[in-house]
Structure formats: C-alpha cells, structure tokens
From TrEMBL:
The keyword Isomerase applies. One of its GO terms (molecular function) is isomerase activity. GO terms for cellular component: peroxisome. GO terms for biological process: fatty acid metabolic process. Keywords: Fatty acid metabolism, Isomerase, Lipid metabolism, Lyase, Multifunctional enzyme, NADP, Oxidoreductase, Peroxisome, Repeat. This is Peroxisomal hydratase-dehydrogenase-epimerase.
Length: 320
C-alpha cells in the first residue's frame, strides 16, 4: 500500500540474521524495498555445529519473495568485512542493526575468562566494530540509523549472566554517546531490549509464553526507529509481544549537604531517606543535570550547617 513505511534504495545490514530476531528484521526490510546484508556466523548460540548455511537460507527466502539480499559469514568482531559486503554489493549502507549475540551463562563463581571475553567480544566489541566501519559512510552521506540490542539482563541484572549483562548495559552507554556524536550528521542511534521467542529463549520460557512473543512483534518498532522520518535518538526501548515502552533514568529528590566539616557520615545517616525519596523524581539525561546539583550545594548559605537541622534531644546519640 502507498502509506506503508518503505526503505527503497537503502541498504540494511542485519548482524546475527540467520535466525531469531535478526531473520525477522531481514525478511521485513527486504519486503519493504531494502537491500539486506544477512550476516551470521551460522552457529548456534552455544557454539554447536550445524546451521552453517543459516544466512544463505534467509537470503533464499528473501529472493523467493522478490527481495534483494546477500549473505555474509564474518563474525561481527570483524565488522569492517560485513560493512564491506554492503558497499561491494549495494554501494551503500543506511541502516545497521547490531543484533548478533551469544550466551555463556554461568554463575560468577565459576566464570572463566573465556566465558567473559567471548560474550563481551561478540555483543560489545562486535557492535562497536560494525558501527565504527559504517560511521564514515553515514557521516559522508549525512544519513545513518543504528540499533543496538540491549537486554533486561543488562538493565536490571540477571542471575548467572554477569558477562552478558555487563556487555548489554555497556551497549546502552555506547548508544547514548554515539547518538550525541552522530546527531549533527543525521546519524541516529537507539537501543532496544527485546523479548522474543528464539533459540536463545526457547529453553528459558514456557511454550504458552513463547507462542505470544514472536520476533515479528519486535520488528515494527525497530522499523519506525530506523526510518528516515524518525528523529528519536539516544533512547532505550523495551519491546516484545506487542508491548513497547521507553525506559529512562530516574533521580531521587536527593540530599544536599554543605561541603564543610559538618559534612560527616552521621549527617548523611540522619537524612538517609532523602537520598532514595522518589516522590519528586527528576529524569536527568546529561552530565549538565548533575552540575545543577553541585551548584546548589555550593550556593548553600555560609551560616548553614549540616547538623543544625538535626533534632538532637539528648535521647539519641548524635552520630557524626
Ligand atoms: P538467536 O540466537 O536466534 O540469534 C543470534 C544470532 O547471532 C544467531 O543466529 C547467531 O549465529 C548469531 N551470532 C552469534 N555470534 C555471532 C558473531 N560473532 N557474528 C555474527 N553473528 C553471530 O537469538 P535472538 O534471541 O534472536 O537474539 C538476537 C539479539 O537479541 C541478541 O543480541 C540477544 O542478546 C538479544 N536479546 C534477545 C532476547 C530474546 O528474548 N530473544 C532478550 C534480550 C536480548
């Protein structure tokens, strides 16, 4: 239909597109006119053999519906080769979906360097390498769209996944910074924390849940975020099963103490509840917001002392 969001003449690179969410993205963008680079190392998330032709199978499905796609089997750790595939085949890159991922779940006590490094390398370094290679093209054409894939595990922590959660929250910081650096070149970057049935989650969730969280229900939000009409950048969204919502930081009202010799651990203890009082929340989105708080502290009257407001009755020992 004439009113659908289209991506004609654009090139979309999807990492980890041999299955799961990546495959859903690849099929969608190809069906909406984009040239798609279907990247996947073609192994399972636990590094088992099999599925070696995953990207070719997806490319075959795209061609069968009249779309344009090419397979790429490089690891995202060699992101420049993936971007080269886009340029060599389609002459440009417009959208990068950093989606590839692995799990090496293990309790922190038993974690080995190999478990840590492989997860950090695929998710964090891989996303960096792909974005870094795409960046000069984006900058030159003054157009680029990047999606990084975070996770509830990163945003909130998750038992047995400290490697994965560290990588996933690092991607939020990465997203927010390159969003700030890219905006003047019309390079927009957002992070999504998806929930979807895939081989990564099929052993974790019950079948009745999996039936309602198709990867297809993550795709439309991503499609909006990478469309030329979008101006949203540096944001985090959770999305899955038809639910989608933006997430942000929240700061409590907080406690301001005058930095003098009455600024003691005891003075903090006396007013501890203010530190976590979220009844008047603020939603900071830059270091400048913190500067305002520092100015407030510096502006406290020279007669102010941090202990004078304490109700020291003599019954309670004054802790300093
Ligand atoms: P999936 O396992 O089906 O897809 C990941 C794909 O990445 C696989 O096809 C795999 O072969 C590929 N891959 C692994 N290492 C690679 C590398 N070095 N280079 C290129 N490709 C590589 O899993 P799913 O669920 O589709 O995951 C997609 C993304 O979504 C991942 O980043 C994952 O962490 C994230 N995610 C998924 C959630 C879910 O509920 N499915 C929840 C939160 C995050």
């Amino acid at each position: 239909s004439k009113s659908e969001l289209r991506y004609d003449n654009q090139t979309v690179v999807v990492t980890g597109a041999g299955g799961g969410l990546g495959k859903a993205y690849a099929l969608f963008f190809a069906s909406r006119g984009a040239n798609v680079v279907v990247n996947d190392v073609g192994r399972s998330f636990q590094d088992e053999k099999g599925g070696d032709k995953a990207a070719d199978i997806v490319v075959g499905e795209i061609k069968a519906i009249g779309g344009k796609a090419v397979a790429n089997y490089d690891s995202v750790e060699n992101g420049e080769k993936i971007i080269e595939t886009a340029i060599a085949n389609f002459g440009r890159i417009d959208v990068l979906l950093n989606n590839a991922g692995i799990l090496r779940d293990i309790s922190f006590k038993n974690m080995k360097d190999q478990d840590w490094d492989s997860v950090i390398n695929v998710h964090l370094r891989g996303s960096y390498k792909c974005a870094r290679a795409a960046w000069p093209h984006f900058k030159k054409q003054k157009y680029g769209r990047i999606i990084n894939t975070t996770s509830a595990a990163g945003l909130f922590g998750s038992f047995g996944q400290c490697n994965y959660s560290a990588a996933k929250l690092a991607l939020v910081g990465f997203t927010q910074t390159i969003a700030k650096e890219g905006v003047k070149y019309n390079i927009l970057c957002n992070a999504i924390g998806p929930v979807a049935a895939s081989r990564m989650t099929e052993t974790v969730w019950p079948p009745e849940m999996l039936a309602n969280i198709s990867p297809d229900w993550v795709v439309p939000l991503v499609a909006v975020l990478v469309h030329s009409s979008n101006s949203e950048t540096g944001s985090i969204f959770e999305v899955g099963g038809g639910h989608m919502a933006k997430l942000r930081w929240e700061r409590a009202k907080g406690l301001i103490l005058k930095p003098d010799d009455t600024y003691t651990p005891g003075a903090i203890l006396q007013q501890w509840s203010k530190i976590s009082d979220f009844s008047e929340p603020e939603h900071p989105n830059g270091i400048a917001d913190m500067m305002e708080k520092l100015k407030e502290a510096m502006a406290l009257d020279s007669n102010d002392t941090n202990v004078e407001t304490l109700d020291f009755t003599g019954k309670v020992a004054l802790v300093t």
